[in-house]
Amino acid sequence: MSENNGRNPTLDDVALHAGVSAATVSRYINNPKVVAAATGERIRAAIAATGYIPNLLAGGLASSKSKMVAVLIPHLTDSIFNDTIESMTGELAAAGFNVMLGLTGTGIGRTEDVVRAALSRRVDAIISTGPLDAELADLVRRGPALFIQIWELPEDPPGLAIGFSHNAAGRDVARFVLSRGYRRPHLVTANGTRAAMRRDAFKAEWQAQGGGAVTEAQVDIPSRFGHGRRVFADIRRMELLPDVVVCGSDYLAQGLIVEAQAAGLRVPDDIAVIGFGNSSVAGEMRPTITTVEIDGARIAREVLAAIRAHSAGEELPQRSVDVGFRLIARESA
Fold first, then answer.
1. DSSP string over 131-159
2. Are 205 and 258 in a shared domain?
3. What's the confidence (pLDDT) of residue 283?
4. Where is 106: in which H helix or E strand?
5. Are 113 and 190 in a shared domain?
6. Containing H/E element for 146?
7. Which of the ends of the chain has fewer CB neighbours closer than 10 A, N or C?
8. What gap in Å lies between CA 252 and CA 132, rounded to an integer?
9. Does residue 268 belong to any structural domain of this protein?
């Protein structure tokens, strides 16, 4: 951890820690290949130890506020976060903030690179939809920017978390499925932590309510329309067809519905389908898709309020904001 008495670490701090000159540190930051490998490794370790973030704003700023916000998203294609991100960027732009969009992929390594790039541009806030490891959490905790995680509520967020309980969402879907009389659910989830939380909560609630066996399948992140074809083909080979398929996204649910109809099955009479996220396609499909809605507009408002408070030097009243969710029953189940 850095020991700089509350101030931001400087180039000189890194140089002192690495045992080199400030000019050598500067050369390494601008082009790591120009310094010897061993020296570069000492500088890299010193940067990590001090928490130093280079300032890439040309000439610096007269004010410490850049009016820039970085929004990090794993991917754009078939992203379950798209509607939330669109609402949020609209609110931020209307409030006079410039939004920098960063694509992180699904791995921690790329996420850390994008976070460091955002911090080096002295953004006022970083809004993230992706996972964190301990090292990245420590980095953003020490950084000057407000770090906001959306769509989740970790027990100990390094900054602010604005989201909902994935466990509660999984339980509520299980209760809904039982209340509608379905008895053979098949769960299809993406290979991610949050989807796994919903899946596990569904299964736990299903068993607690006296439900029978639950079958399941997993798809890669991001779950896409095209995954529906493979998943449906696997379902057709099952000894007993499920009466409801619970999907980790609306895109996946859409793909399954199209495949089922192409095979001559009626939705929901022969097989019901439930999605997640309430994307625009959910209400435009025929049949319309039963899904779980996350209030992206509410998340956007909470994000903007937090950034304004942070920029004004105010203490945030809470570290977690639960925006809840809503299960929308439509034609597909």
1. ---HHHHHHHHHSSSEEEEES---SS-SS
2. yes
3. 93
4. none
5. no
6. strand 146-150
7. N
8. 25
9. yes
The HSE-up count of residue 147 (CA atoms within 13 Å, CB side) is: 21
Q: Which residues of 250-268 are buried (b: 16+ CB within 10 A; e: fewer)?
A: bbbbbbbbbbbeeeebebb
- Cβ atoms < 10 Å from Cβ of 282: 24
Phi, psi (rounded to 5 degrees) for 332: -80, -10
Residues 6 or more apart in contact with residue 99 via CB below 8 angstroms? 68, 69, 70, 71, 89, 92, 93
Instruction: Return the pLDDT at 62.
Output: 42
pLDDT of residue 2: 46
109 vs 117: CA distance, rounded Å: 13
DSSP for 226-275, please give it. THHHHHHHHHHTSSS--SEEEESSHHHHHHHHHHHHHTT--TTTT-EEE-
Cis geometry, peptide bond prior to residue 222 (ω within 30 degrees of 0): yes
Has residue 6 been placed in a domain?
no
What domain range includes position 29? 11-50
Amino acid 149: pLDDT = 95
Are 89 and 71 within 8 A, CB to CB?
Answer: yes
Single-letter code of the amino acid located at 14:
V
Give the chain's length: 333
Q: What is the mean pLDDT of each run of 10 residues along the chain (333 residues)?
A: 60 88 84 86 87 62 68 79 82 86 79 88 90 88 92 92 97 97 96 92 96 92 84 94 96 94 96 94 94 91 91 88 96 97
**Phi then psi for 148, rounded to 5 degrees?**
-125, 120
pLDDT the model gives residue 1: 42
Backbone angles phi, psi at 99, to 5 degrees: -105, 125
The answer to whether residues 191 and 275 belong to one domain is: yes
Residue 93: CB atoms within 10 Å? 12
**Identity of the residue numbered 237:** R
- Alpha carbon 206 to its chain centroid, in Å, reads 27
198 and 238 together in one domain: yes
- pTM for the structure as a whole: 0.79
CB 317 within 8 A of CB 161: no
Asked whether residue 328 is assigned to any structural domain, the reply reads: no
Amino acid making up residue 195: A
